[in-house]
Amino acid sequence: xxxxxxxxxxxxxxxxESTGQRALTLAKNAEKAAQESGVTVIVAPQMMDxxxxxxxxxxxxxxQHIDPIKPGNxxxxxxxxxxxxxxxxxxxxxxxxxxxxxxxIEAIIALTKENGLVSCVCANNPITAAGAAAMRPDIVSFEPxxxxxxxxxxxxxxxxxxxNTVMLVRKINLECMVLCGAxxxxxxxxxxxxxLGTQGVLVASGIVKAKDQYSIIRDFAEATKILNV
Amino acid sequence: xxxxxxxxxxxxxxxxESTGQRALTLAKNAEKAAQESGVTVIVAPQMMDxxxxxxxxxxxxxxQHIDPIKPGNxxxxxxxxxxxxxxxxxxxxxxxxxxxxxxxIEAIIALTKENGLVSCVCANNPITAAGAAAMRPDIVSFEPxxxxxxxxxxxxxxxxxxxNTVMLVRKINLECMVLCGAxxxxxxxxxxxxxLGTQGVLVASGIVKAKDQYSIIRDFAEATKILNV
Amino acid sequence: xxxxxxxxxxxxxxxxESTGQRALTLAKNAEKAAQESGVTVIVAPQMMDxxxxxxxxxxxxxxQHIDPIKPGNxxxxxxxxxxxxxxxxxxxxxxxxxxxxxxxIEAIIALTKENGLVSCVCANNPITAAGAAAMRPDIVSFEPxxxxxxxxxxxxxxxxxxxNTVMLVRKINLECMVLCGAxxxxxxxxxxxxxLGTQGVLVASGIVKAKDQYSIIRDFAEATKILNV
Amino acid sequence: xxxxxxxxxxxxxxxxESTGQRALTLAKNAEKAAQESGVTVIVAPQMMDxxxxxxxxxxxxxxQHIDPIKPGNxxxxxxxxxxxxxxxxxxxxxxxxxxxxxxxIEAIIALTKENGLVSCVCANNPITAAGAAAMRPDIVSFEPxxxxxxxxxxxxxxxxxxxNTVMLVRKINLECMVLCGAxxxxxxxxxxxxxLGTQGVLVASGIVKAKDQYSIIRDFAEATKILNV
Lengths: 229, 229, 229, 229
Prior knowledge:
Chain A has helices at 21-37, 47-56, 80-86, 102-115, 126-133, 154-157, 159-172, 187-195, 205-208, 213-223; strands spanning 7-11, 40-44, 62-63, 90-93, 118-123, 139-142, 177-181, 200-203. In chain A, β3, α3 and β4 form a beta-alpha-beta unit. An eight-stranded parallel sheet of chain A has the order 2-1-8-7-6-5-4-3. In chain A, α1 (21-37) runs parallel beside α10. By secondary structure, the first copy, chain A, is α/β, with parallel strands linked by helices. The two termini of chain A are 27 Å apart. At the A-B interface, α2 and α3 of A face α2 and α3 of B.
């Protein structure tokens, strides 16, 4: 699968506001905003919610995590093949809340390539972003953990770090997309992220916990167009 | 939820034979065998398959794992509330393929009690089974990892260890059920397990990879009745 | 090795005040306080400091952690045999800052028994303490993580939880010692711990960061005698 | 500290043949071979043995692992400051037997830079070696885990993979040294490694378990000179 940039990934995490029936509602809001704006909006719901969202919503779905395993003896693990059959077209890898070993990240990227899924490796700083980029995922997403969930947007609080990340990644890998995340809650934070050289944002609570999820996603989507104006 | 013993838990693991559409088929076979035998048969499919099985099959569903977390910032984790909304009524905990820290096991047991789910803690030997039993789960399942997937049944290869496990668990906890697993592929292995003092078995490849899953589950279910004959 | 109760274990953690040369000084202070009070005082320094302390100080030494491994291919792990040759006579297991899987705890206890070392399993609440006790270590030490390093002593802030821990452990295991720890910085906290039914305390910053380490250890040691007065 | 290439790192792992008194003997053999050959030979003993080797042997010592921590509340962890005070001048990071998360590797490299230690990150394949190199350690060591301890040398069994690793690392990082390891037990394996573009080897059982450790190290050291002949 080839994704069109700019893009927005909505990470549902494990909020109650994005679990079960409410995950479906959020995905439908994302679908509507994507269709109206023409911008790529991806949803990353919990495992249990992938199947139903895939049935009822026409929007790319990412898993939040998959394990570096082959089918077999792996009780309690997340199998790529199961995520794919349920409807996932890609996966987050190494989110700061689900960090992985270096060799696991590489193994998962390899599995996604074998199976035609999109890989998005998260990184906590510019240097780990460079390390991730060197392993050739489709997307690298930079998220400083100390800003996650704070409402202080990385693109405004640490613009030079975002620029540095883009630069370090680009030195090593000209093909992967670069996103940033953490603290993004306003359309202007999204626009700032794009102006700093990213191809979009990875967002969670800013959308999940919003009163009007649809409007926020719509605003974020429009904001990604800033360079085309 | 209160489960009636004896019981059989079918662990789907991450086999392709028990993923997606084929998970649904296996669950339907388990349902049919349960209804005809009158024996409790529980299925433990992968996360992504819980929702659809819950919709189409009337049989208790366990998660293979849940994480010791509350709703919130936990990308890539398994939230009890999401498993429950999807249809799970219980969960495996600490399977030898998904081992957990002591404090995590206790925290997950506590979450299951708060939320009315059944807890089944797996243990790799009689002493860890005693350790598990001391934390008061609903079920302790003893599985020696070296026999998993071998076809050499724990109930025949190590009967004295099964008896020892039952005894050590009973000294500490008179209420929890005790299961055993690993290598069980014949009805006589199930009967042997029950005669040794267990309340049933935890099985995986013996059923998942069987050509006629229904007949095997049915045979296993009948075999659990050996003490009532 | 058989330890005489009551006892005090001084956990050096990885404070600079208890690293290298300063670890040796602290161990000498502990030795002096032990000799003068006649109370068992154990030191648990960092790995690198065990050998030199063992050479120069006549006091029981515990490792802070060992790994559940046999000699061989285990780069970067802590081998019991190496800790023993360096001079350790026992080890902490599962400290809240170095938590272990259930099966690992059991495997390490088994290794200590095979090799004649003393095992002290830490537990974060009464239920995990019961789980630990069921696996028959020599010592169970209860430390609520939320009080560690706070100066709020568990023996005064949560006396009923200490009593509950002692009771749950005793139901399952009449032989192991029970210690408590977290927040202990005054002799009266130690006396309170002993009055609640413990055989002593596990302490760290209260001693390591004290200006006069010797006097504090001496006071703590005297305080453990409260029931003999 | 600046190391002169080519170099040989002897990983003591947790073999009994390289524990305690025998670790000291091995380190003395390495020292003698280093002095006579003029080649840099580094020893990586267990934590407990660093101090005594540093006192008695004049040869660079690496830790086998350090943790990404600052001094403080970290029971059972390996503190860089403690390893340094004991005598370590560098550390292995992410050995395949002690694998680390991406962010941990980066954090440990940063700690070594702050404290003037040499960092050697191990990688299990060319792509993870590139990922490691992007984070700018002093040394990247490529070791395919499937060959470790087999006696089948990576430099002869997989020469094209060694070349590929060197190439991928060099594209990203022109300054770090590249070593290879796994299965190396003969001087010709060392020579082959150097001819393939590495600056030396990381070896363990081939030396630790040799009857005449000194002669093997001496032979290996001479073999690294092949390009200077």
